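# step 3/5: fold
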Amino acid sequence: MKGIILAGGNGTRLYPITKSLSKQLLPIYDKPMIYYPLSTIMLAGIREILIISNPEYIDMYKRLLNDGSHLGLKIDYEIQEKPRGLADALNVGEDFIGKDSVCLILGDNVFYGQGFGPKLQKASEVERGAVIFGYYVTNPSEFGVVEFDEQGNVLSLEEKPSKPKSNYAIPGLYFYDNSVIEKAKNLKPSARGELEITDLNREYLKEQQLRIELLGRGFAWLDTGTYDGLANAADFVRTIQKRTGLYIACLEEIAYRNKWITKEELIKLGKEYEKTEYGQYILRFASDMN
C-alpha cells in the first residue's frame, strides 16, 4: 500500500497567516502540521508516500522532508495546479499509485489514541473495497456524515446535511483498493465544481464494498482548519506531551520502532535538533532503547 497526503488548497479560513505559507506547514505546538498526517501513514506501516501541494509551496515541503530516506521512507511530490476537490488527489497521484492500494489523508487532520496503529494496519490490508472511519461529534452538520447499522454496515453518506442521520462524522482518512483510480476518473464535478470525496465513497457503497471503523471515546480527532482549531490542537499536543513525557507525531521515533532506521541513525537525527525539547526527546528515547 502507498500513501498520499493532500497538502494543497488556499487555506482561506486562516488568512492572513496563510497568505504566503501553506497551511500544512503551520506549527501545531512543536512540529509542522504535516508531521501529524505523515505520522499516521507511518503508523499504518506505509513507506512510499506522495505529498501533493500547490506549485508555490512544493519546494518548501521538499526542504522540510527531502526524499524521506532519513526516516526510511520514499517521499515523492506532485503539484496540484488548483484545488479541484479531495478526490482529485487520486487523479494527481495516479502514476504514483500504479497497481497498488492507497491510503489518502488530508494534511490538516490530527489523530491521537491508544491502539490507533493496529487499526491503521488492519485497514491497510484492504484488498477489495474501501475503509473509512467514523467519529462521534455533537455538530455533524459541519462534516460528511455516515449512517450505519448495528453490524457496522454503511447505509448512507451525506455531505454537511441539515438533518443528519447520525452523529458520526467521517474524518479525512481513507483506505482504497486499486479500483479507486478508475472511480476517481469517472467522477463528475459537484455544484461547486469539485470532485467530492463523498461521491467517491458512494461508488464503493453502491458496490457494497465500503467498510467503516469507529474511533471510540479514547480517540481524539482534531480539525485544524480554523484559528481555534489550531490553538486547540496545539494545547492538546502540549498537554499530552508535558503530562506523559511521550511525544505525539515524532517521526524519528516511529521510524525506529518500525525498524526502518538504526539506533545510530536515530541518534544522528536527534543531534540535529538537540537544542530543542524535540531533539532532546529523540536522544532520550534512543538512550532508553538498549
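# step 4/5: annotate
The chain has a mean pLDDT of 92.
# step 5/5: archive (pending)
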